[in-house]
Amino acid sequence: MKLGSKPEIFVLEDLTWRCTTELESDVVVEVGEMSFYLHKFPLLSRSGVLQRMISEYQPPVDGVGGGMCTLQLDDIPGGAKAFELAAKFCYDVKIELNALNVVCLRCAAEYLRMTDDYAEGNLITQAESFLADVLANWKDSIKALETCEGVLPTAEDLHLVSRCITALASKACASDAAAPLLARNASVAAADKDALWNGIRTGDTASSAAASAMDWWYEDVSFLSLPMFKRLIQAMEAKGMRAESIAGAIMFYAGRFLPGLKRNTSFSNALASYGADGGGGGGMSSRNVTPRAASVSAPSEGDQRYFLEEIVALLPTKKGVASTRFLLGMLRTAMLLHASPLCRENLERRIGAQLEDASLDDLLVPNLGYHVETLYDIDCVQRILDYFMSSTDGIGTGYTSPALAEDGGGAGAGSLGVPQGGTPSTALSPITMVAKLMDGYLAEVAPDTNLKLPKFQALAAVVPDYARPVDDGIYRAIDIYLKSHPWLSESEREQLCRLMNCQKLSLEACTHAAQNERLPLRVVVQVLFFEQLRLRTSIAGWFFVSENAAGGDGARPHPGGAIVPKGAAAAAVAASAQAEVDSDAEDDAPPEGKETITDVKERVSELEKECKSMKQEIRRLGKPPRRPWGLLTRKCGFGAKVQQAQPAMSGK
Fold first, then answer.
1. H or E segment at 618?
2. C-alpha to C-alpha distance for 539 and 529, rounded to whole angstroms
3. Which residue ranges does the record assign to the BTB domain (predicted)?
4. Is 95 helix (H, G, I), strand (E, B) or coil?
5. In terms of Cα–Cα distance, which of 307, 309, 365, 305 is closest to 338?
6. Which of 50, 244, 287, 576 would you call most buried, defined as having the most Cβ atoms within 10 angstroms of its Cβ?
7. What does the DSSP 8-state code read for residue 455?
8. Percent of the chain topping pLDDT 90
């Protein structure tokens, strides 16, 4: 917007503005180091403040200044630049209003009292009219809000800051409300488009359209200083913006100003990269300075700590809106900067509420305490896991224990909280994922020789036994810990091995455990016994299915309560049953079927004898030294298998 009609008549010479008219200047206005040689009449006709100052001016007695009226305006908002524009407006010289100078000019006009009482269509009226147009545009509103930083508190008194924030919040919320509809329309449009050759579709997907509708404003607001950004986010939240969009903007903003969020960035490197960032330094090195206008400098540790604590407090409380990776990155940075205990507890609780979404790499939080004992912060992960268990313990919170399922009439639940048939319930999936995650974490921290046995046991025992469908993961962690801590006594080894359930080890893990000399003898005996029992159960199940199929009645549960095996054994049983049914459908069944059933009966009888013999020998041996491995493995039928199997589970 352009104001005035006369050409330029001001000339700058060595910090001095002079008016190039034929009339000699009769007033000097000093603003900081800048001097303006002007005329009284244009100023008197527009500004109430200048009119009062000129009328009250008393020349010095000693005649310093040559008798010319000299005025001091050091505290005018916007400084010399704002007064230059106001002076040109008084002379009706052409000036151009834009989003970057309208706020400063509006504040300067208020300071000079350039109201319509002195001249119609004065500067305040003109600035307000143009400001209304600025606030109608998103980009211009962002620029106007940034310039408010330099004219505080006048901009606050004139409600310019609140008007800019309200305009921005309204526009962002309107777009956010339309995002689901845009995503739905994009999905329909994508489905209607013709596919190219080989089934490749053109155009944006629904997910990209939804993301674009949500995050288009993230980068624009990331240039704001922390106080302005905080007020803008609070205004958006008050207007009903979705928590997902608010969290996305906060994560984008934090990633810009906290380079330490990156997984492999040290504090010193974070400071260096932050100082080299071409627009971010001012938002933190000075808490009230616009980032684009501030000089780029590395923020202090105290500034970063203050920034992080404010960002954590600003995050929405809704679960899942902030990614677990981001929260863990914030937690690492909080420890690095020695943030307040309340801030760290807030982050740990948030992470615990959605721990099933975490990855192992992000969970490896280095120990940065003053008394470092272990490489990784085990206590922190212990607290996070405790928060997870407390947040998921109950009805209607994403997790159901087997006891609650049984009390609620959940028929068919097995002893592990899994329905019969082997398919885990949806309610158990989060805790099952956490169990797998913690088994991996225990395997990563187990080689640390400073990790004490009670701390390892305490962390492993938090996850209940029914959360692990298979105990291969916890077995691997125990084996690594035993290898890294060879000085453990026999009783300590047995105590550690109580963390795993030998009945839930896979065939591969059983094969490895059977020849693992680090395990106590009692545990190896249990592994071999349960493996033989599993083999007997599989053979018995195969026998019952084959017998029923041969009788033409189809597979059905045996009245004796035999358990049909799962996994690979179940596949073998199913294949055998199908073969028997197919052969029975023919007119004459092959005689090999009878021979196979006879062989199975003989094998079952042999296994029963071997089991009885093994029990007698175990009672005779009592607690022998850890040496008769070959004898036990041969008696359980594992001799050939142990010699041929390659241990797939490395103990590191």
1. helix 592-621
2. 15
3. 25-99
4. strand
5. 305
6. 50
7. H
8. 46
pLDDT of residue 273 exceeding 60 = no
Q: How many CB atoms lie within 10 A of CB 606?
A: 11
Helix or strand (DSSP H, E) at 11: strand 10-12
Residue 406 has pLDDT above 70, yes or no: no
pLDDT above 90 (res 434): yes
> Any idea which residue has 């197919």 for tokens?
582
Which of 323, 176, 180, 309 is CA-nearest to residue 247? 323
- SS3 state of residue 6: strand
For residue 445, with 0-12 CB atoms within 10 Å meaning exposed, 13-18 middle and 19 or more buried, which class applies? buried
Residue 257: predicted pLDDT = 86
Q: What is the pLDDT of residue 27?
A: 92
Q: Which DSSP string do the residues of 546-610 spell out, in sequence order?
A: HHHHHTTS-S---TT-PPPP-HHHHHHHHHHHHHHHHHHHSSS--THHHHHHHHHHHHHHHHHHH
Range list of H helices, 393-451: 402-407, 429-445
The tokens describing 233, both together, are: 């986010």
Q: What is the pLDDT of residue 598?
A: 64
Return the residue matching tokens 């310019």. Answer: 160
User: For residue 423, is pLDDT > 60?
Assistant: no
* Helix, strand, coil share of the chain (percent; to 5): 60, 5, 35
Q: Which residues neighbour 254 within 8 Å (Cβ) at sequence distance 6 or greater?
A: 261, 308, 311, 326, 330
pLDDT reported for residue 539 = 73
* Residues ≥6 apart with Cβ < 8 Å to 286: 225, 294
pLDDT of 420 > 60? The answer is: no
| Cα gap 18→638, rounded to integer Å | 104
Q: Would the pTM count as exceeding 0.85?
A: no
Tokens of 583: 């052969």
> What CA–CA distance (Å, rounded) separates 357 from 320?
9
Residue 316, amino acid: P
Across the chain, how many H-helices and E-strands are there? Answer: 30, 7
Residues 6 or more apart from 466 whose CB is under 8 A from it? 401, 402, 415, 416, 417, 418
Q: Is the pLDDT of residue 285 over 60?
A: no
Q: Are 73 and 36 in contact (CB under 8 A)?
A: no
Cα separation, 210 vs 513, whole angstroms: 51
Of the CA atoms within 13 Å of residue 210, those in its CB half-sphere come to 13
pLDDT at residue 465 above 70? Answer: yes
User: Is pLDDT of 201 > 80?
Assistant: no
Per-residue burial over 544-567, b = 16 or more CB atoms within 10 Å of its CB, e = otherwise:
bbbebbbeeeebeebeeeeebbee
Task: Check: CB of residue 499 under 8 Å from CB of residue 457.
Answer: yes
Token pair for residue 635?
Answer: 């008696």
Report cis status (omega within 30 of 0) of the bond before 153: yes
The per-residue pLDDT for 345 is 95
Tokens (6 digits) for 571? 């596949």
Residue 333 is which amino acid? T
d(CA 601, CA 595): 10
Answer yes or no: are the C-beta atoms of 57 and 71 closer than 8 Å: yes
Spatial CB neighbours of 185, under 8 Å, sequence gap ≥ 6: none
H helices of 193-242, where?
206-215, 218-221, 226-238
* 300-316: pLDDT as tens digits: 888 999 999 999 999 99
d(Cα 472, Cα 647) in Å, to the nearest integer?
13
Joined together, the tokens standing for residue 3 give 């104001």
What is the DSSP secondary-structure string of 230-299?
Answer: HHHHHHHHHTT--HHHHHHHHHHHHHHH-GGGSTT--HHHHHHHHHHSTTTTHHHHSTTS-TTTSPP-PP
**Which DSSP helix (H) or strand (E) runs through 96?**
strand 95-96
